[in-house]
Design goal:
Rossmann fold, globular, seven-stranded parallel β-sheet, single chain, 2 domains, binds nicotinamide-adenine-dinucleotide, six-stranded parallel β-sheet
C-alpha cells in the first residue's frame, strides 16, 4: 500500500496534483565547494571590519549594499548571490533599523540558493545589548523561513578576540553550497588556541597547486564509524575528497560494502562493532598497524547509529539498551581511550565529531530511546569541548533533520512525506549535506569552532 501511494505521488500526474495542493517541486539546491555566481554584498552596521577582512582573506570580492533609507525602495540591478551583514558592535534597538534597511532590498534580489549571513558579537554586556543580540537570532530564523528558492539565512556569533582567520572556514562554508541544508541556525566561533596556518604553511599538508581543489585534510587520518552506507559513506567520501586518509569502520555484517568503499577511497576498512568493550583500543591498533606507530588520528566521526522505535509504553529493556549503547555509550568509552596518548590515538589539535539528531533536541513520538541517546550526545559535546580545549582538540556535533537514507526509508510513506516537507527548504536533506558540515568541523581551519551543535535540517519546524 505504502509503495503504491509513493508511486502515485511521484508519477507525473501525482506531481501535478501535489502542485495543486501547494506541494510544488522543491528547488534544486546549490551544493559542493561552490560560491554563488552572483555578487556577494557586504554590509557593516557598526564599523566592524571583521566580516570584510574575512571575505578578503577568502578572496571573495564584495559589493556595496543598497539601503532602504530613501523615500523609494532601491532595487539591485541584478540578482545577488549573498549578503553578509557584520552586526558586531550593535548594542541598541534603534540600530536594528540598519539591519532592516540593508536586508530588505537584498532579500528581494537574492538568487536561488542565495545566502543571508549575519555576524554578531557572542558576548555583550547590558540589558539592551543582550536584547539586541537575541533579536538578531529572531530576525535570522524569520528571514530563513521567508526566503525562497533554496536560499538560506544563518547567524554566526563571534567571541571576543576572534580574527578573520578564525572566521574564514565558517564564512566559506556558509557561502558555499556545502551548507545547502543548514538554515536558520546560529552558532559561535571563538579565537583558535594556535594561529590557524595559511594554506602552504601547514607542515602536514602536501604543497598544493592553485588549480587543484582544496585539500584541507591532506596528510591526515580520519576515522568514520558506521561508514558502510548512508550518511557515514558520504562522510568518508567527503573526507577523502578533502584529502584525508579514511579509516572506514562498520559491523562485520556490512563487511562487503565497507571494503568496497574503503577501496574506492584508497582508505582502509576495519570491521568492528563500536559497542565492543575494546573498540577504542582496536581503532588505535588498526591505525598504528596500518599507518605506522607514529601515526595518529586527526578526526574521529562517531556516526554509527541505530533506531529501535516504539512508544515508551512499549519499550522494553533490550530496545532501550541497544540504542543507548550504539548511539551514546560506545562513544563515551571510545573517546577516553583515543585521548590517552597511545599510538594510533587522537592527535592534539584533532577533531571529535558526533551525530545528534533533531529528535534529540525536540523529542519525537516513538523515539524515547533514540532521543535520549541523541540528546546525550549533545551533553557529551558540551561537556567534553572545554575539557579538551587546552589540547586544541575540538568537539562538535551535527544534528540532522530528515535525511534521505535507508534509516528514514523505513518510515511509513505519508509520515515520511510530512517530515520531508516540514522545513523551510521543502525537501529532505541528502547524506552529503551532513557530510559537508562534518567536513567543515574536521577542517584544521575550524580550530575556533568547538562545543557547537549545528542542525542540518533545512530549518525543520521541530524543536529550537
Ligand atoms: N537519516 C536521518 O534522517 C538521520 C537523522 C538524524 C540523525 N541521523 C544519524 O546519522 C547517523 C547515520 O544514519 P544513517 O541514516 O546513515 O543510518 P544507516 O542505518 O543508513 O547507517 C548506519 C550505519 O551504522 C552502522 N552501525 C550500526 N550499528 C553499528 C555498530 N554497533 N558498530 C558499527 N557500525 C554500526 C550500520 O551498519 C550502518 O552502516 C546515525 O547516527 C543516525 O542516528 C540520521
Amino acid at each position: 500500500m505504502a509503495g503504491l501511494l509513493e508511486r502515485a505521488f511521484t508519477s507525473r500526474a501525482g506531481k501535478a496534483l501535489a502542485g495543486r495542493f501547494g506541494l510544488a517541486e522543491p528547488p534544486v539546491l546549490r551544493r559542493g565547494r561552490v560560491l554563488p555566481d552572483e555578487p556577494v554584498v557586504l554590509a557593516s552596521l557598526a564599523n566592524s571590519t571583521l566580516a570584510g577582512d574575512t571575505l578578503e582573506l577568502l578572496g571573495v570580492v564584495s559589493a556595496v549594499p543598497l539601503r532602504d533609507d530613501d523615500a523609494e525602495l532601491p532595487a539591485y540591478p541584478d540578482r545577488i548571490g549573498a549578503i553578509v551583514v557584520d552586526a558586531c558592535g550593535l548594542r541598541e534597538v534603534r540600530q536594528l533599523e540598519g539591519l532592516r534597511a540593508v536586508l530588505r532590498p537584498a532579500v528581494r534580489a537574492l538568487a536561488g540558493s542565495g545566502r543571508v549571513v549575519l555576524v554578531a558579537d557572542a558576548e555583550v554586556t547590558g540589558v539592551e545589548a543582550n536584547a539586541v543580540r537575541q533579536a538578531l537570532d529572531g530576525i535570522n530564523r524569520t528571514v530563513g523561513k521567508e526566503l525562497r528558492h533554496g536560499a538560506t539565512a544563518n547567524l554566526v556569533y563571534v567571541a571576543q578576540g576572534t580574527a578573520a582567520p578564525d572566521l574564514a572556514s565558517t564564512l566559506s562554508f556558509l557561502l558555499e553550497g556545502r551548507s545547502a541544508f543548514v538554515d536558520g541556525q546560529s552558532w559561535t566561533v571563538s579565537p583558535a588556541r594556535d594561529p590557524i596556518p595559511e594554506p602552504g604553511q601547514d607542515e602536514q599538508r602536501a604543497p598544493q597547486r592553485h588549480d587543484e581543489p582544496p585539500a584541507p585534510l591532506a596528510g591526515r587520518i580520519v576515522v568514520v564509524t558506521g561508514a558502510a552506507r548512508g550518511i557515514g559513506a558520504q562522510i568518508a567520501t567527503v573526507a577523502a575528497r578533502d584529502g584525508a586518509t579514511v579509516v572506514c569502520v562498520d559491523i562485520p555484517a556490512a563487511g562487503e560494502s565497507l571494503a568496497a568503499l574503503a577501496n574506492r577511497l584508497h582508505g582502509t576498512a576495519l570491521q568492528l562493532d563500536v559497542t565492543a568493550p575494546d573498540a577504542g583500543e582496536r581503532i588505535a591498533a588498526h591505525v598504528a598497524t596500518r599507518y605506522g606507530a607514529d601515526a595518529c588520528i586527526h578526526g574521529i566521526v562517531h556516526n554509527a547509529g541505530i533506531t529501535r522505535d516504539k512508544q515508551l509504553a512499549n519499550t522494553d529493556a533490550q530496545r532501550w539498551a541497544q540504542v543507548l549503547e550504539v548511539n551514546l555509550a560506545a562513544e563515551l568509552r571510545i573517546n577516553p581511550v583515543l585521548l590517552e596518548g597511545r599510538p594510533g590515538g587522537l592527535a592534539d589539535g584533532g577533531r571529535i565529531v558526533a551525530i545528534a539528531s533533531t529528535s534529540g533536541i525536540a523529542g519525537n513520538r516513538g523515539q524515547a530511546n533514540y532521543a535520549a541517546s541523541k540528546a546525550g550526545v549533545v551533553g557529551l559535546v558540551r561537556a567534553e569541548a572545554p575539557q579538551l580545549a587546552a589540547r586544541g582538540i575540538t568537539v562538535n556535533a551535527v544534528a540532522p533533520g530528515f535525511i534521505e537514507t535507508d534509516m528514514t526509508a523505513k518510515i511509513p510513506f505519508v509520515q515520511r512525506e510530512v517530515f520531508r516537507r516540514t522545513n523551510s527548504l521543502g525537501q529532505g536533506g541528502q547524506p552529503v549535506d551532513v557530510a559537508e558540515t562534518i567536513g567543515y568541523f574536521l577542517d584544521p581551519a575550524s580550530a575556533g569552532v568547538t562545543g557547537q551543535v549545528v542542525r542540518v535540517c533545512g530549518q525543520n519546524l521541530v524543536g529550537q
